[in-house]
Amino acid sequence: MNYEKPYVIAEAGCNHKGDMAIAKELIEVAALFCKADAIKFQKRCNRELLTEEQYNAPHPNPENSYGKTYGEHREYLEFTLEQHAQLKKWCEEYQITYATSVWDMTSAKEITSLNPKFIKIPSACNNHYEMLQWLCDNYKGEIHISLGMTTHEEEKELIDLFIRNGRNKDLVIFNCTSGYPVPFEDICLLEIRRIKESYGDMVKKIGFSGHHLGIAVDVAAYTLGASVIERHYTLDRTWKGTDHAASLEPDGVRKLVRNLDAAYKALAYKSQEILPIEKIQRDKLKYRKH
User: Fold this and answer.
1) What is the pLDDT at residue 195?
2) pLDDT for 7
3) Which are the contacts of 137, defined by CB distance < 8 A and separation ≥ 6?
4) 201 in helix, strand or coil?
């Protein structure tokens, strides 16, 4: 197996708490301290995405809510298209790739107008075929899609849609278990091998989107064939909100990038039977028959 250099996406999502100053700090820290390749936010049109009942219902975890209803909570955390344009500009200044997850048609159209390098489709929306078709027709960048909460039949239908449209080589699919946080026994890393064997030749890349704690399993995901690693990212895991507890703080993302880069350098065969570094030790230490 030839290993590509790992590509790390720091998924900020809505961990900015609806505050542009925090969003800018997330960008700056991800770029300069963590050395991540990309930072990803999210865009939702809540009136389109939620039913009236869902919009007006209380947040299921009131202690994490930023509004009186779930709809108010979601609106509080939402940035406008103009604010996303500013996020992209800051990303360009700090030389980190800007990206966003889109949850609905309105958001897909808005973010496409910014022409980012890639757009992400979360697991919750990977069967929104109308939106996927629109992106195939109107957006020319990479399309990243998570496969959480998805049957094998739904996976195939998804891949087939991109093949029919001649866009499968712009597609990056992510092994993912949808949970916050996910216990280790539910990460199911060997699904990466299955996905790679089934679709590796059809798509651009295989990725891993982890919602677990720590960074112990991400290198394993990389060695199994996931060259794009996406992890939730926050400045403070104790902040109010459902995603913070399942996120990495800056030092965690920095160590993740470091460990993946180390694994990339190490994943090679010996260029010769006795390496130059070994020859010195061989001359000094190797047993010699007298």
Assistant:
1) 98
2) 98
3) 165
4) coil
pLDDT of 240: 80
What was the pLDDT predicted at 289? Answer: 85
DSSP assignment string, 152-187: HHHHHHHHHHHHHTT-GGGEEEEEE---SSPPGGGT
As a whole number of angstroms, the distance between CA 191 and CA 11 comes to: 22
pTM of the model as a whole? 0.96
pLDDT reported for residue 124: 96
Chain length of the chain:
290
170-193 tens-digit pLDDT: 999 999 999 989 999 999 999 999
100 and 106 Cβ atoms separated by less than 8 Å: no
- What is the pLDDT at residue 95? 98
Number of H helices, E strands in the chain: 12, 8
Using DSSP's 3-state secondary structure scheme, residue 241 falls into coil
Task: Identify whether the C-beta of residue 154 lies closer than 8 Å to the C-beta of residue 126.
Answer: yes
Residues of the chain with pLDDT under 50: none
d(CA 215, CA 246): 12
Close Cβ partners of 79 (under 8 Å, ≥ 6 residues apart):
16, 18, 20, 23, 41, 43, 87
Give the closest residue to 44 by CA, choosing from 119, 88, 87, 102. Answer: 102
Residue 193 three-state SS: helix
What are the backbone angles phi and psi of residue 289, rounded to the nearest 5°?
A: -75, 125
226-247 in b/e burial notation, b at 16+ Cβ within 10 A?
bbbbbbbbbbebeeebbbbebb
The full DSSP string for 98-109 is EEEEE-SHHHHH
Q: Which residues pair with 174 in a beta bridge?
A: 146, 207
